[in-house]
Amino acid sequence: MNHYETVFILNPVLSETQVKETVQKFEEFLTSRGAQMVSKEDWGLKKMAYEIQNKKSGFYHLFEYTVTGEILIALETEFRRDERIMRFLTVSMDKHAISWAERRREKLKSKKA
Length: 113
What we know:
Helix content is 42%, strand content 42%. By secondary structure, it is an alpha+beta fold.
């Protein structure tokens, strides 16, 4: 099982309900195939550096999870098929990236408290 991080951008014209449904769809897609979710983050509506599909903003979400590499091909195919997804990026995390992500999550928790 490898450690991965996926950031995806949802179309800004979606309602809050549609955004939640889409995020839940991809989370269930991963967990149904044996992925262990480490963390999920909703970064909200953000302005992008350049237009994508004539849109200047999008809803950003981050998943951090562990799963076998074969599942990534199916996940990325699902991202491409869903018109609500504007862009996505999946990266494999090494031990340094994992420790950095843990420190970042702890820092976010301390800010909320």
